[in-house]
Amino acid sequence: MWERFSFYGMQGILLIYLYYSTAEGGLGISQTTATSIVGAYGGLVYLSTILGAWLADRVLSAERTLFYSAIVVMAGHIALALLPGLLGVGVGLVLVAVGSGGVKATATSLVGTLYAPGDPRRDAGFSLYYLGINLGALVGPILTGLLQTSLGFHWGFGLAAVGMGIGLVQYTIGRKLLVGAARIVPNPLPHSRRPLMVAVAVTGVVVIAALAFGGVLTADRLANVVVALSAVATVVYFVVILRSSRITGVERRRVLAFIPMFIASAAFWSLYQQQFTVVTIYSDQQLNRNIFGWEMPVSFVQSINPIFIILLSGTFAALWTKLGTRQPSSPIKFALGTAIMGVAFLLFLPMAGDAPGTAPLLGLIGILFVFTIAELLLSPVGLSLSTKLAPAAFRTQMVALFFLSIALGTATSGVLAEFYSPTHEAVYFGVLGILGIALGAVLAAISPFLRRLMGGVT
């Protein structure tokens, strides 16, 4: 909860901090470059789950990786709060992204260890886990937004650091209760190979630094770079798992079944994560945020979705529990989530072409309600499915694969945002909405085949 408080609290004011003028307390970066940075940063968060999952499965265990990652997150928020200008943005976002990646992969895996294989409560449990996440996501943008409008951006970033610090203290007190599988390293890295891994990491950092200082890795290209890295990492990851001698034939077929779901998930997140790019710009420029003479901060819009998550996650948990074995299969849930996300984009069309500052707040609230329905059909189910389809030797890394689909989708949301403008809203929202619905229909059509490959996993 506290990690999400800090994460969404910071992200609620990040984009406008980048493109607001220096007179408004921002950095004055172009809007296109700002959305590229935000998309790349969001993608890097989920791309970093690969590193976190690898450390958990090969070196530290899931529980220890989560603990150390939380410390890195807090350091990133401190850098954003205290370091000036682009230096703070660069150092802070890299630290938050890498740390959040470790937290995400391992926290989900730890929740998975609380349920025995085949326990029908697993999906419901992940929905409740999602509720905890969204309590933090609700409060974070509200409080950081209030500080940003009253005292300045760096005060908002500082509050995110304080929230992460509270969460770290709380976790330190309770972490001794996480035992068993949570502290086991399932596939330990031999000591003889550790120097090689260190050398690879150092080389990677040096190459990235050289590309950045050489002008190849520029801010306006960042989202495209993360898309490419995510795509390459996806192919490599699937090949490594599928060719491993440590998995059985049944496990291999289950991994193959996950591939179409991975594609649908990436498409879903490329639309959903535009909450932090296009929807933020829309809220800043097109939305009427005047409520009885008070102008609502832009960041408050980021708290609308968590409100609906909190209200509906318990309903979905109860629904899946009540339906039991009669509930829709995971492929059908994925198909519905993707298609409904497409519908949400089409709902922007009645407001397309409105004059700046006139789009009704209730209209956007309704659209974000549909976002939430789509999210609850796919995201917690995807987390649960990744633990159910995971080969024993790749338990945490399979969760990282699901997060990799979010990395690909999130970075793509930054790329797509470059094509958005108020003058072309109808085309933008219409094309993306139709594509989402079409992809959902294709996934529904092939769901019987996927269920056979999943070998009894629903």
From TrEMBL:
CDD domains: MFS_DtpA_like (cd17346). Pfam families: PTR2 (PF00854). It is found in: Cell membrane; Membrane. The chain crosses the membrane at residues 5-22, 34-54, 66-87, 93-116, 128-147, 153-174, 195-216, 222-242, 254-272, 300-320, 332-353, 359-378, 399-420, 426-450. InterPro entries: Dipep/tripep_permease, MFS_dom, MFS_trans_sf, MFS_Transporters, POT_fam, PTR2_symporter_CS. It is a multi-pass membrane protein. Belongs to the major facilitator superfamily. Proton-dependent oligopeptide transporter (POT/PTR) (TC 2.A.17) family. NCBIfam families: yjdL_sub1_fam (TIGR00924). PANTHER family: PROTON-DEPENDENT OLIGOPEPTIDE FAMILY TRANSPORT PROTEIN, RESISTANCE PROTEIN MDTM, PUTATIVE-RELATED-RELATED. This is Oligopeptide:H+ symporter. It comes from Pseudonocardia alaniniphila. The lineage of its organism: Bacteria, Bacillati, Actinomycetota, Actinomycetes, Pseudonocardiales.
